[in-house]
Write a structure and sequence with these properties.
By secondary structure, the chain is mainly alpha-helical. It is built from five helices and no strands. The longest helix is centred in the middle third of the chain and has 29 residues.
């Protein structure tokens, strides 16, 4: 559970950065900032809840036999995907939400781990070069 919460903090930071960028960009569009803020809050909270659900489902699946774990994960994946579809559809139907503000935070986990992977790969490359240079002398 601690690992899930630690990872959720990373995703929450990404959601906050994305919200700041969208609110800044929204200032240049003809968008009501209150609707955009509400949409970002709704999308961000849903993303965090979805991420928490994914973590708890994975933790429970690890305690099951392989075949039951596979079925359990597939069922919960389908349920989370269906729920995400309902949230996106709702964002288009509710006049007080801006769909972009709901949809963009859904990409926060992917962006978080993509950025972390790129950062780690660059950092390791620099570290390796320093080690090679130190070995030469």
């Amino acid at each position: 559970m601690e690992l899930i919460l630690k990872e959720m903090k990373k995703v929450a930071v990404t959601i906050g950065l994305m919200a700041a960028v969208l609110l800044t960009a929204g200032a240049f569009w003809d968008v009501d900032w209150r609707k955009l803020l509400l949409s970002l809050l709704f999308g961000g909270l849903y993303t965090l809840a979805n991420f928490m659900l994914l973590g708890t489902v994975c933790a429970k699946a690890c305690r099951k036999p392989p075949q039951k774990a596979k079925t359990y994960m597939q069922l919960h994946y389908a349920l989370r995907l269906l729920l995400t579809g309902v949230v996106i559809l709702a964002s288009f139907q509710m006049h007080y939400l801006v769909p972009v503000g709901v949809i963009v935070p859904l990409f926060a986990p992917k962006l978080t781990y993509l950025a972390a992977g790129i950062w780690q790969s660059v950092w390791q490359r620099k570290r390796r070069k320093k080690e090679e240079a130190a070995d030469r002398y």
